[in-house]
Amino acid sequence: MCGMRKTAGDAPPKISRAPLYQALLEVNLYFDHIHEHMERLRALALFRSRAGRAFLPAFDDGLSEARAWFNTELLEA
Question: For a surface tag, which of 1, 26, 49, 75 has the fewest beta carbons within 10 Å of its beta carbon?
Answer without folding.
Answer: 1
